[in-house]
C-alpha cells in the first residue's frame, strides 16, 4: 500500500475508534503530508468537515501555487462538496481508496480536468461497510440522504 | 430588501468589521433562519469556512428533510466548494446577492436542478469591491487564484 493512502486509512481508523464516520484524507505536497484529517460529524458535530475538508483545514492557509502541486489521498470517493473544494483550490490529482460503498462526484472532477485514480482498497471498503452496517442513519445524514 | 438577504448582508458587514472577507449567508427553513455565518479565513484561519459553509456549520446537524425544504441566501455567487455543499445536502433554492465581482458555479447548480436567483445588490457588490481593492491577495487566496 502506498504510504500516503496508508496514512489516509490510519486517519479513517482513528475516526472509527472515536465513534466517527471512518473516512480519512491526507494532502501531499512535494512528497510530504501537509495536512491530514478525518470526518468530524460525530466528534465535533460538523456538517462540513468531511475527511477531505478536515485535511484541507488542517493544512491551513496556503497559496494557490501549493494546491496546484498537491495530491489529495482519500479513503472514499469524494462527495460533491469535497469535489468542489478540490476544484476551487485547483488540486490536480486525487487518489481514492474505494468507490463501491459510495460513488461521489468523480465524473465532475474529471470534467474539470482533475486526474482521478481509484485504488479499490479492501481495507477502505471494510471500514465503510462496517460503519454503515452499524450506523446507517449517521451515514445517510453525512451524505444528505 | 428581503429580510433574509438583509441578514446575509449583516453577516458580511460583521465579517468586514472583523477584518475578514465580507461574504455572509443564512440558511432559512420554514420562514426562519436556522443558521447564519460569514467567511472565516482571516478570523479563524479557515480555508473551508466560506460564508455559505459557516452558515451550514452553524445550523448544525440536520436531517436531509430539513435541507430539502430550505433556502440558502448568500451575498456572493457560491464557489465550487459551496455549490457542492448545496448539491450534497439537496438544498433546492439559492438566492445570491451579486455575481459581478465573482462568478461562482451557478451553471453547475442549475444543471443539478437547484433554483438560482440573483438579486444584483449594490450593497453586496460594494462590500466586495471595497475588500478586493484593499486586500486583493486575501481575496485571491480565498478563491484559489
Automatic annotation (TrEMBL), chains A, B:
This protein's pathway: Pyrimidine metabolism
Nucleotide-binding is among the record's keywords: no
Gene Ontology terms describing biological process: nucleobase-containing small molecule metabolic process; pyrimidine-containing compound metabolic process
Annotated ranges, domain CMP/dCMP-type deaminase: 1-116
Gene3D superfamilies linked: Cytidine Deaminase, domain 2
The organism's place on the tree of life at top rank: Bacteria
GO molecular function: diaminohydroxyphosphoribosylaminopyrimidine deaminase activity; zinc ion binding
Keyword Glycosyltransferase attached: no
Cellular location(s): Cytoplasm
Subunit structure: Homodimer.
Predominant location category: cytoplasm
A cellular component annotation (GO) from this entry: cytoplasm
UniProt keyword terms in alphabetical order: Cytoplasm, Hydrolase, Metal-binding, Zinc
Organismal lineage: Bacteria, Pseudomonadati, Pseudomonadota, Gammaproteobacteria, Oceanospirillales
Name of the molecule in the record: Cytosine deaminase
Reported cofactor(s): Zn(2+)
Alphabetized InterPro entries for the sequence: APOBEC/CMP_deaminase_Zn-bd, CMP_dCMP_dom, Cytidine_deaminase-like
Record-linked Pfam families: dCMP_cyt_deam_1
Amino acid at each position: 500500500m502506498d504510504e500516503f493512502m496508508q496514512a489516509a486509512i490510519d486517519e479513517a481508523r482513528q475516526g472509527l475508534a472515536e465513534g466517527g464516520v471512518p473516512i480519512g484524507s491526507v494532502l501531499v505536497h512535494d512528497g510530504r503530508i501537509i495536512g491530514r484529517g478525518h470526518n468530524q460529524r460525530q466528534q465535533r458535530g460538523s456538517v462540513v468537515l468531511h475527511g477531505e475538508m478536515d485535511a484541507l483545514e488542517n493544512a491551513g492557509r496556503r497559496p494557490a501555487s501549493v494546491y496546484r502541486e498537491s495530491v489529495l489521498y482519500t479513503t472514499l470517493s469524494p462527495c460533491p462538496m469535497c469535489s468542489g473544494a478540490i476544484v476551487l483550490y485547483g488540486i490536480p490529482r486525487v487518489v481514492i481508496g474505494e468507490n463501491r460503498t459510495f460513488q461521489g462526484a468523480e465524473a465532475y472532477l474529471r470534467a474539470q480536468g482533475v486526474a482521478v485514480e481509484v485504488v479499490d482498497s479492501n481495507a477502505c471498503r471494510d471500514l465503510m461497510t462496517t460503519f454503515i452496517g452499524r450506523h446507517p442513519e449517521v451515514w445517510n445524514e453525512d451524505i444528505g440522504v
